[in-house]
Amino acid sequence: MARQRSTWRCQQCGHASARWVGRCPECGEYGTFVEEAPPSAAPGTSGASASPRPTVALADVSVSPDSRIPTGIAEFDRVLGGGLVRGSVVLIGGEPGIGKSTLLLQASGRLGARGVPVLYVCGEESAQQVRSRADRIGARDGISLLPEVDAAVIEATILAERPEVVIVDSVQTLFDPGLDGVPGSVGQVRATAARLVRLAKTSDITLIVVGHVTKDGSIAGPRVLEHVVDTVLYFEGDSDHAFRVVRAAKNRFGSAAEIGIFEMGEEGLVEVGQPSSALLAGRGERGVAGSAVMATIEGSRPLLVEIQALATPTYLQMPRRLSVGIDSARLLQVLAILERRAGLPLGSYDVYVSVAGGVRVTEPALDLPLALALASSRNDRPVPHDAVAFGELGLTGDVRGVPHAAARLREAARMGFSRAIGPTLATGVSRQPGYSDARTLAVALEVAFG
Ligand code: TYD
Ligand code: MG
């Protein structure tokens, strides 16, 4: 029999290769390839016969209408598509320290208090550590802790205790002694997760799995599991800011564009139900130049954010261009459009731009408010305090339409803004008083600064 060859596998995304490679061709990470032992049995040699369980006619499969378990945390339920779906598997990814354990313990507390039994598998922390965090966030009844990493033991405990919801924190600590590899390797992560996913599906238990994302690829990332779970959520935000965003990346049971917004407080995560007011809370005084309010869309939700710019004469050969929360290529493009299409050169200025509150804005509708903030700072003229803006800029200086204009305008009106500057609206979108449609950037600047 020919000797089975081993494969090399990327610990970040699971891409397989016949030999070691320095950079993964799939996800682009460096130094993430680890050798994997060949499988012990060839397919078709296990001697298994057809499933002893009869197949089920699709039409005969019963579906219970009330199959959601709301966690009671509205922002979390919203991203899930209306609560946890019974028997589904949710993966929550994010960098260490972002708040995954905190969120799930808070959800456990709410579920437990309502009489939904939760089993919390804490492979990373001791029961005492979890208990002290639980005290801090007020979680108490209905939660069983299982400090365990052996997948077989966890499986047996689930079958014996029959909880409704199981939380595994984290998948990278799980271990199957029958397999090669250390906990956190792609082989272990995939095999142990697959085992628990199978159990969840056959016993109608809802499973939430935590997966750490590390930049250096030292442990297998959640990406290797994305395809075996029903819902993938990522917890984002940076540790310098209080805001945390839970974003759906995949959802078999809801929209994959939804987000939930939280703030990390002294007693756990606090839901930010009115993100616009929270984000605009620190907004500068009326009459300050270099600030524009953008009506953006996050998921299905309109949100007002402040775009800030500072343009100051440079003393450098190469003027600085620094951006926070804004793609730097986007900034350069808007600067070029301002210079060529609106006659506003910034070549002799250092330019700093940021989105206040630590959020990231990646949608093209950022262009117009960014241009307004830059022009405002450059000319030291404030954008009207009661105006919001949105719109993509074409390279020719035209202001282009963006989706969800009506929702953006509704949010602006709700927050008390009486004016808006944006693209020519598609027919069917009701125009509200105070809306100025600008065909070009030059027109928009004229409207804003007259
Ligand atoms: P944690 O939820 O353990 O993050 P993860 O499980 O994603 O690694 O902790 C998040 C951070 O938040 C941690 O640095 C401690 C801090 N924190 C608070 O600020 N307030 C709190 O009430 C709690 C529980 C944690
Ligand atoms: Mg944790």
Report on the architecture of this protein.
Helix 2 packs across helix 3 (127-137). The radius of gyration is 26 Å and the shape is elongated. The chain has 3 domains: 1-38; 67-273, Rossmann fold (3-Layer(aba) Sandwich); 278-449, Ribosomal Protein S5, domain 2. The model has no long low-confidence stretch (mean pLDDT 89). The protein has 10 helices and 23 strands. It has 450 residues and is α/β, with parallel strands linked by helices.
The major β-sheet equals: 9 strands, mixed
Please name the CATH topology of the largest domain.
Rossmann fold
Each distinct ligand? thymidine-5'-diphosphate, magnesium ion
Overall 3D shape: elongated
How many beta-strand runs? 23
**CATH class (first level) name of the largest domain:** Alpha Beta
Distance between the termini: 83 Å
Helix content: 25-40%
What is the architecture of the largest domain at the second tier of CATH? 3-Layer(aba) Sandwich
